[in-house]
């Protein structure tokens, strides 16, 4: 039997071929699609076709499930495989005790910074807390440099901030959703960044890993990026950066509230509802995300983000990095970041629209048009209205 898999991982067939050669019952054929080409997948399923397996970021899994495009993996015993996965990964595809996807990779957030400039030249250290971030950003700004530069239209960065702070924006209850974007954790984040933006001590004209960011980072004018674990590969392309950069934990709240880190970016394998071989597809996906040989191959050929396996990060990630100042940053920093996640967080079935609303709100906040505290409240009302329009039972938290 042959399984088809539409994925944006490059050279994934090389990984599939390892599985194909291990047994003679199942052959997996991978077809490359552009990242997040979800309309193509959903249209194919609606027409009665499509692949057996689709590649979907974890935050979009609820939307696919709502559309009736996915197989509930719990029916095929996937819950029995739960302990093979990192809790911070498997929790993202579990909605009311049903598993709708197999986690493949994700991006625990950390701080990637120019050690040579921040520490050696300016005599500063990477901020361990958000309170220290405020102080450090101000000190860097006084030198004519920026600690970080934000893309004001990126709606997923604020989501990572509130996720880490302990917020749970979307909570499924019975047959509906409770939306709470104005809890204490969310307001704390909003007030903090309102102050940062008001003081104009960070860059807000462009985001990390854009052309102007690379130019500024190469010249030592932007000193850090706070982002998912996959940022390491992008940092390695900073001009003249070899041996000058390092990795530190994501800043935390000084009083201990919240979590060590958050997630930015992720992907999963979903079994689409038209598949005639869901059990075999699940066998392959579980192997792909938990077998050390597969994980090593995905790192080598596909450049995956952080492994979702419970106890294996990949052989290539168990040694010091010459680029990152000889630091064994994956084991020293990224492992704790992956373990220190908000397991209560649940993705809603319209996260792309949520990110757009938050991104538009961030742009307005950067321009001084509205504080983030008000923006979060307005967004909550708008998102509930949209959820009701698409047929969901949704209420604002009281």
From TrEMBL:
SUPFAM superfamilies referenced in this protein's UniProt entry, alphabetically: Periplasmic binding protein-like II (SSF53850)
A Pfam short name: SBP_bac_1
Keywords assigned: Cell membrane, Lipoprotein, Membrane, Palmitate, Signal, Sugar transport, Transport
Taxonomy, superkingdom: Bacteria
Matching InterPro entries: Bact_solute-bd_prot1, SBP
Listed name of the protein: Multiple sugar transport system substrate-binding protein
Species name: Brachybacterium sacelli
Keyword Cell membrane: yes
